[in-house]
Amino acid sequence: MAQRAVWLISHEPGAPLGGTVRFSRRYPTVEKRAKVFNGASYVPIPEDGPFMKALLFELRLLDDDKDFIESRDSCSHINKTSVYGLLIGGGELWPVVAFLKNTMIYACVPLVEQTLSPHPPLISISGISQGFELLFGIQDFLYLGQKNDTEINTKLNQLPDLLLQACPFGTLLDANLQNSLDSINFASVTHPQKQPAWKVGTYKGKPQVSISITEKVKSMQYDKQDIADTWQVVGAVTCKCDLEGIMPNVTISLSLPTNGSPLQDILVHPCVTSLDSAILTSSSIDAMDDSAFSGPYKFPFTPPLESFNLCYYTSQVPVPPILGFYQMKEEEIKVKITVNLKLHESVKNNFEFCEAHIPFYNRGPITHVESKVSFGQLEVFREKSLLIWIIGQKFPKSMEISLSGTVTFGAKSHEKQPFDEICIGGTAYLKLHFKILDYTLTGCYADQHSVQVFASGKPKISTYRKLISSDYYIWNSKAPAPVVTYGSLLLVRCHN
Amino acid sequence: MEAQGSGCGTMGPRGRETWAQRLGAFRASPSAFMAGPEGEDLGCDLLSELRSEKLSEQTKVSLLALSLEYPAQLWPDTAAAEAAATSLLDTLVLLPPRPSALRRPLLLAATTALAAGDALGPTSAASLRLLPLLLGLASGSDLGRGFGPASEQRSLQATACECLRELESCKPGLLGGRLGLLRGLLGQEGPVQPLSLLLALALRNALVIQARARAGLQGLLMAGDAPTVGIPWNWALAEEGAAHLQPQAPGWPATEVQECGLAVLEPSPEEARELRAAVAQLLDTSYLLTPVAQAQLLWLLGWALRGLRGQPPVLFKPQLVRLLGTAQLTLLHAILALKAAFGEALFTAQDEALLLRRLTLAAQHPALPLSAHLFYLHCLLSFPENWPLGPTGEEAAPLLLGPRLCRGLLPSLLHNPMALLARLHLLCLLCADDEEKEEKAQDWSPQHYLEELLAGLRQRAALDGGPRALATLCFQASYLVVRCLAMQPAVLTPLTRGLAQLYQSRPALAPHFVDLLDRVGPELGEPLRVVLRQEVVARPGKDEALCWHLQILAKVADGNAQSATLGFLRAAAARCTDWDLQQALLQVCRALLRAGVGKGLADLLQALARQLEDPDGRDRARLYYILLAHLAGPKLGVALGPSLAAPAASSLVAENQGFAAALMVQEAPAPIRLSVGPRRAEGPVPVLQLQVEVLEPVYSLELRFRVEGQLYAPLEAVHVPCLYPGRPCRPLLLPLQPRRPAPTHLDVRALYTTPSGLTRHAHLPPLLVTFADLFLPFPQSPEGDKQGFFEELWDSCLPKGAESSLWCPLGPRGLEALVSHHLEPFVVVAQPPTSYHVAIHLPPNSRLLLRLEAAQVDGVPVALRTDDWAVLPLAGDYLRGLSAAV
After folding, report:
1. Which residues of B touch A129 (CB under 8 A)?
2. Could you tell me which residues come within 8 angstroms of residue A230 by beta carbon, excluding any fewer than 6 positions away?
3. Residue B3: what pLDDT?
4. How many CB atoms lie within 10 A of CB B391?
C-alpha cells in the first residue's frame, strides 16, 4: 500500500519540454521492496526528466499529434483508468497513477507486492487507491480556497515538509494535508488519550455549527417530441463545527417539505458514525415511486476541526427550474436564432445572477448582430463568437422571456475561433448560468432545531442554502443534438 | 565502526546558499551530479554538516530530506549505509535538550539509511542501537532529557512507530517478538493510529511467517509488556521472514491460498481467542484512524486472517455498514479486498447486491472525480463475486449487475475518452449477454445503442483537421467492440460498413486502418480488407488521397480482384511523381508479389522500371521484376516476407533488410548438436563416427570441417538431405587423413536450409580428435606366429625410434578390464590376466608397441616402443589417462 515516488508536473503547452517538474519525492525503502517483490519485472524509478517526458507523451500532452505513433495511437493501446504504463529505458514503468487537473499533472507509482508480468488487476493492488487518495489530498491542499499563482507556489514550497509529516516512508498516514500542516503547528499540545488521528487539536472558543447546502442543477433540453429532456440535482452539505472537547457528537437531520424531492445516491464523510439503511439504499438506479424514503435524513458524526463535506446527494426533481427552447437555422454566413425561456412558478424568482451564453463554434468571428430581446440585455463578444444574454435578478411577471435575432460571421481563421467536436453544422447549444441564494430545488433544508450537539455549551447554529446551475444546456431543436438516454449522450438525427 | 571515512569532515562548512545550490544541482539530475566532481563527497559532507553550528535547522532538515530520498546515491554500499546511520544516530544523541526540528527527520533518516542500504541485521551495530531506541520511544519510556522536551515526546513516539513499521515492512518478522508489548501499548495511552498500524503489520507478518513454517503462534500475542531495554533483540522470526519476502500474499482470490504460500494455520483455542481479541481491539478503535489508515488496517487484517481456520471474519461486519456509505476510494477498495478475501463468509448475497449498487453509484456519482469513476468501473468489471461464473482474471460484468443497474453507466460522446472506453467495455459485455438471452428486452436494445455510439465516434473522427485523439478513440472503440463481440455479425456488419465510409470521407486515417487490420482477427479483418480494397480501387478520388490509398492497398492487396487492382496501379503510376509516392506504389507491388500475383504484375513492373522518374524507384521496380521472373512462388514469398521498416534513404537499402534476411546466407545460432560416437578402429584410415541431433527440422545440411595447420589432409564435407528432431539418424562417417599422428580440433561449420526456405550457416563448437581416435590395428599374417610378429615389430623400432617404460596404476577391476575396454582391437599376444602385447598402427606410418606384463594388484609396468619419437609423450599421456579413466 506504499508509494515508490510522487510527482507534480505543471503542464505548459508550447514550452520546449511541455512542462516542468514542480515537486517530486522518492521513497527508497519502498523501492527496495519493489525490487524484491517485482523480481525480473522490476523497472526502477527514473529521474524526473525522463519521467516527465514519458508521461506527457502517454497523456498526449506533447504538441506532436500530427503523425500516427503506434505506441500511443494504436487501437489496442486502450486505457480505461488513470493508471498508465510508461516506456522508459527499454522497460515499462507500471502502474503509474496520473491525472491532469488545473494544468497540474499529479502522478505517483504505487508499490505492487508481486511480479508485474502479467499485470495483476488494479483492484488487487492496495497502493492504487492509496495513491489516488494521496494525489487527491495534494490537489485539495493546493487548490481548495485559492487560485492565484503566488499562493500555489507558497503551498508547493510547503509540500516537502508536509509529506514528511503525512507520508514519511511512502505509506500515506493522512490524505488531509492541511491536518499535517496544523499538526506541525500544534506540535506542543499534549494530547490526551484516544485523540483521533484526523483531528490534530481541540477547539477552544465559542461553540458554533454552520451547515450549508449547495445544490447544482444540470439539464439537457431539446424541445423535441421524440427525445425527453433531462435534468438532475446534485447536492453537497458542508459543515464547520467549532465545538470544545475531543470527540463531540453531532447529529444533523436534513428534512424535506411535503412536496420535496427525495434525496438519493447519498455518499457520506467517513466521520459519520452510522447510517440508516434507507439512506444507504436510496438510489437513482431505482424507479421513483411514492414509497421512496423522504427523510428526515439523519447523520450522526464526530466532526473534524476543519470544514468538511458531510454528504453528497442527487435528486430527481419533477420539473427543471427553467424550461426553454433554442432554434437556430443556418443561412449561408448568417444564422437566425430564436430563444425562449420560462421560469417555473415554483422556483424562487430572485437570482443572484442569471445569464444565457450562446456560443458559435467552428465559424468565423461575429461581424454583425441584429437582435430583439423581450427582457434583459444582449452582449456580443465578436472574437469569441459568443453572445451573452444578461437576464439579471428577476424574470418578469409572465415568467417567460424571449430573444430573436440574426448573427453574421466573418471568414474562419483556424487559430482564433473556438473549435468544438460536437457542435458541427447546426448542432448548437445555449448554456444557462444562474445562482439563487437561500433556496434549494429539492426543498432540502437543515432545521436548526433538529441539530443535536452533545458537547459542553449551547452552540450557535447557522444554516445556508443555495442553488447554482452547472452544465445547463438547451440544444438547438432544428438540428441533431447529443442526447441523453438513460443518463448518457448520443448524437441522434433530427426528425423535425 | 568508523563513523566517517578518512575523507569525511575535511571540507569546510558551507553556507546555506551553497547548499541550496548544491542540492538544486543534485535534484536536477542525481546521476549527472554524482558523476561530476562534487558527487563523491556529497554523502560525507552532508553528515558532517549536520553537526555544524553555522547551518540553520531548516537547511539541515533539507539535507536530511535529501538523504531520505537518495540514500543509495549518497551511501552506495552497505558499509557506507551503516556508517551513515551511525553518524546520524550520533548527531541525534548530541542534540542539545531544547526543542529541535531535527529529531524526527534524524530518526527517519537513520531508518532509511539502514533499510535502504541493506544494513539492517543482527551484525549491524547501528541496527542494534536504533531498534531499542525506537522501541523505547514508541513505548513512551522516559529516555532522559537528551531526547528533547516533553512536548516533543508525543510526536517522536508516533515517528518511532512509523520507523518501526517501515523496518518491519522491509524485514518481516522483525517485531514478531514484540506483539504482546505493542498490544499493551495500544491499550494504554499511546497514539492510536501509529500503534494500530504497527501492530497490525507485525501481526500479519508474524502469522504469514508462522503459517509458512507450519508453526503455531507460540504465545507471541501474550508476551505482555516485556521490558524493552536490556534484552537482546530476537531476530529469529525476521530471519525466517526474510527468506519469504517474495512473493507477498496479494490477498486476492485469483491467487490461491496455497499458491501464495499462506499455508492454512490452525491456532490452538487459546491462541485463537487471543488473536480474536487483538483483532477486535484494533477494529474497535479504527474509527480514530484517518480514512486512509483505516483502509490500510483493513487490508492488513484481511490478509492476516485469511489463511486462518476458526477465525470468523464477522469481526469485520460492524465496520462495513459505516464504511459502505462513504465516498472514500481507499475505504471502498478495502471493502472489496475483504470481499475478495472472505467471500460468502462475510458477504451474503444481499450484501453482495448492496455492495454492487454502491459501486455502481460511485462509478457515476457527479460529486466524485473522473479518476475515481474510472477506478470504480474497473472494480465493477473485476468484482470479486461470491460465485463467479466466468474464467478468473478476465474482466466481466458481475451476474447481479443487470442492464437496469448499468443504464447510468452507458457511454456517450461527451465522455472523456477513458470513461468512454471503460463504459463501452461494459456495454459490449451487456451486448454479449443480451445475445445469449432468449427473450430480449423489448424497450431497449444494447446493440442499437452501440451502433449509434460507434456511428457518432466515426462522425467525429471524420472531422477534417480534427485532433488525432478523436480518430484514435474511434479506432480503439472499434477494436474493443471487435474483441468483445467478434462472434456477432449483427454488430460487425454495420461496423465494417461504417469504417469503409469513414475511410472514404477521411483517407488520411490510413495509418489507423492499417494498425486496426494488424490487430483484429479475421472476423472483422477479412471483410474490412475487401471493402477497403473496393473503396480504394473503385473510388480513387483526389490526388491528395493517393498516398493513403497506396498505403491501404499495400496492406489489403491480395490475389483477389487482380485486374482491378493492377488497373488502379497503372493509372496511379502516372500520378506518382515524387519519391514517396513511387515507393508507396512499389510497396503495393511488393504486396502483390508476395500474394503470388503473376502476369499482369510483370508487365506493370517492366513499365515502372522504364517510366518512373526517380532512378531509385526504377531500380526497385527492376529488382522486383527480376525476382518475379527468377524466383519460385514460395521462395519469393519468403524473400519478401518480413515487412519493411520505414523506408530508408534509398529503397534498395531498405529492401536490403528483407533480402539480406531472405536471399543471403545468414549466420544463425545452430539448431544442430554434433558429437563423436564410439571408435571403429578398423579399415585403412581412422574414421570418426559423428552423431547429429537437431532441435528443428533441417534440410540439405552440409557440414564442413577444417583442421588447424597442416596436421591432416583437407577433409571432405558431409552431406545429409534432411534431419528431424527426435528422429534417430545413422552415424555420419568422417575419414581422417593424418599427415602426422597427433590429436587436433576440427573447426565445424554447418550450412542448411530452414523449414521456411531460408539458407543459414552456423558455427558449431569444435570437435576434438583424440590421440586414441587415430589408433588402427596392424594387419595380421594369416596363421602367423603372433609372438614372432610382435617381436619383429618391437625390434624394428630401434634405433630410429624411442623406448620408455612407465607404471600404469590399475583400478579394482584389474588389467583385464583395462585392456578389454581400451586396447582390445590392438592386442597381438594375450596371456590373461597378467600379460598382453599390443601393437598399434598410427597413420600415416608410425607404430606404437606396448608390453603389459607381470601385472600386480595395484598396477602394471608398461614397456613401450615406437618408431616415431614424437609419439612418445602422446602415448605417455594416453596411458596415464587410461588409469585415471578406469
Report:
1. 295, 329-330, 332-334, 375
2. A219, A220, A484, A487
3. 42
4. 7
Residue A79 phi/psi, 5-degree rounding, is: -115, 125
pTM confidence score: 0.80
What are the Cα distances from residue A321, in Å, to A206, A219, A316, B82? 39, 9, 12, 70
- Grid coordinates of B494: 454495420
Among B57-61, B289-293, B473-477, B776-780, name the one with the lowest average pLDDT.
B776-780
Whose CA is closest to A266, among A251, A250, A282, A254?
Answer: A282
Closest residue to A123, CB basis, from B366, B382, B480: B382
Which residues on adjacent β-strands are paired with residue A8?
Answer: A23, A106
Residue-wise pLDDT for B675-723, tens only, equals 888 887 777 888 888 888 888 888 888 888 988 778 888 888 888 888 8
Structure confidence at residue A438 (pLDDT): 96
Indicate yes or no: CB of B456 within 8 angstroms of CB of A490.
Answer: yes
Q: Is B193 on the interface with A (CB under 8 A)?
A: yes
- Give chain A positions within 8 Å (CB) of B329: 129, 132-133, 136
DSSP notation for A462-484: EEEEEEEEEEEEEEBTTS-EEEE
Q: Which domains does chain A have, with CATH numbers?
A: 2-182 (3.30.450.60), 208-319+441-488 (2.60.40.1170), 322-437 (2.60.40.1170)
According to DSSP, the β-strands at A91-101 and A83-88 are antiparallel
Indicate if ipTM > 0.90: yes
Mutation choice for A interface testing from B64, B169, B354 by most A CBs within 10 A: B169
Length of chain B: 886
Of the candidates A485, A490, A475, A477, which has an alpha carbon nearest to the alpha carbon of residue A224? A477
Q: How far apart are CA B278 and CA B180, in angstroms?
A: 10
Q: Does A169 contact B154 at a Cβ distance shorter than 8 Å?
A: no
Provide Rg for chain A, Cα atoms: 26
What tens digit of pLDDT does each residue of B485-525 get? 988 888 999 999 999 999 999 999 999 999 999 999 899 99
Q: Which three cell numbers stand for residue A261?
A: 424531492
Cell of residue B167, nine digits: 523496518
By C-alpha distance, the chain B residue nearest A235 is: B367
- The pLDDT tens digits for B628-681 are 887 776 667 666 655 444 444 455 555 555 565 566 667 778 888 888 888 877
Determine, for residues A124 and B340 on separate chains, whether the beta-carbon distance falls below 8 Å. Answer: yes
CA atoms within 13 A on the CB side of B24: 7
Nearest to A268 among B326, B384, B413 (CB): B326
- CB A263, CB A254: distance < 8 Å: yes
CA dist A320 and B295 (Å) reads 40
Q: Is B245 on the interface with A (CB under 8 A)?
A: yes
pLDDT tens-digit map of B826-844: 888 888 777 888 889 888 8
The DSSP code for B395 is -
Give the pairing type, strands B759-769 and B666-667.
parallel
Closest CA to A238 of A145, A137, A146, A130: A145
Instruction: Cell 502502474: give the residue.
Output: A95
Letter for the amino acid at B519? Answer: R
Q: Which of A128, A236, A492 sits opposite B367 (nearest CB)?
A: A236
| Positive or negative torsion for Cα B63, B68, B70, B73 | positive
